[in-house]
Amino acid sequence: MARNAKGGDAASAADRDVELLELYRRMLIVRRAEERLSQMFADGEVPGFIHLSIGQEAVPVGVCAALRLEDTLASNHRGHGHALAKGLDLERFFLEVMGRAEGVCGGRGGSMHIADMGVGMLGANGIVGAGLPIAAGSALAHQVRRTGGVAVAFFGDGAMAEGTLHETLNLAALWHLPMLFVCEDNGWGEFSPTSRQFTGDLIALAGAFGIDAATVDGNDVAAVARAASKVVAAARDGCPQVLRCVTNRVHGHYEGDPQRYRDPADLETLPNHDPLRRCAAKLGADDVAKVTAEVEDRIAAAVAAARAGTEPDIARARADVYSPCEAAHG
Ligand SMILES: Cc1ncc(C[n+]2csc(CCOP(=O)(O)OP(=O)(O)O)c2C)c(N)n1
Ligand SMILES: [Mg+2]
After folding, report:
1. Based on the structure, what is the number of domains in the chain?
2. Nearest atom (ligand 1) to Cα of 78
């Protein structure tokens, strides 16, 4: 952290504000992008099915602040924040989610299968727990190729009962993989509280495999970023880590979910925990207004570009499914 003649404390306090403002800016990009998607989905502009991470932005933004470009991450069905926080281009993000040919996956991935190897985003995934072994494979690749990289698996608390988590914890510990397990613990798996799906405890489960595990307030972006910088460094050294981030799912399981199964009193308290509100309260109003205007302009431009994108050619529907090995086999 930079110091100046005015004294270390003053300089580091100023730097901390800049860092927090940058974290706020990144969270706001995810928030405003998803708010636009929510509207456009309701208007029939977004094909398929979308799951929004509104209320959870501090987790991907805080964790990805500790990552390098060459680090990799595997996501789940609620993956917009993971993709954008890892650095996926905003315009190509909207083009993809809207199914356009210029999207980062040619419009064939959409919301639930968006991926961009160029920024280490290995893909969203509709199968609960499936990202975990994918991240382990990527961590093994980092280890074998000596890239110095770390692989992160973002998963929900709904994946705690999946065998893939238990098996991946074992392999990560056994092979000393440079891997970080990030649980976005929002208390829900689809329409049931997680307590009705899993009787264990993630921290104790990790301990059973000899893996260090910590819990952090997943609505406090600075706390997540601080915790992430510690656990990412340890994972990079071949000590796999678990970070459980306690947060809230605001928009329901899928977009349009009326959440009738939730206690209305509980829903009313959600704004008090909003990670953006909490972060903004620590920043200057002028800074927040400036960043908000800048982000809103960027979102508007990305949406306009995505609306102007072209429909994919049906002839390319199966392109890139298999590697091009025909020539090799003659
Ligand atoms: C293997 C598997 N089982 C069940 C489902 C259906 N399903 C989709 S999302 C979900 C719950 C996911 O909860 P969680 O992992 O906590 O993520 P959240 O939606 O809370 O972000 C379930 C059961 C699925 N997609 N894959
Ligand atoms: Mg959940």
Report:
1. 1
2. 21
Tell me, yes or no, whether 144 lies in a domain. Answer: yes
Whether the model clears a pTM of 0.85, i.e. scores above it, the answer is: yes
Domain that holds residue 62: 14-310
Amino acid code (one letter) for 88: L
CATH number, domain at 143?
A: 3.40.50.970
Distance 238 CA to ligand 2 centre (A): 28
User: Which protein residues are within 6 Å of ligand 1, measured from CB?
Assistant: 77-78, 126-128, 156-159, 184, 186, 188-190, 249, 253
pLDDT digits (tens, 9 = 90+) for 13-59: 666 766 999 999 999 999 999 999 999 999 999 999 999 999 999 99
Strands across the sheet with 241-246, in order? Answer: 72-74, 151-156, 179-185, 241-246, 212-217
- Nearest residue (by CA) to ligand 1, atom 13, is 189
In a domain, 206, yes or no: yes
Ligand 1: distance of its center to the CA of 159 in Å? 7
Whether the CA torsion 199, 204, 209, 214 is positive or negative: it is positive
The reply to whether 56 falls in a domain is: yes
Centre of ligand 2 to C-alpha 79, Å, is: 13
In a domain, 2, yes or no: no
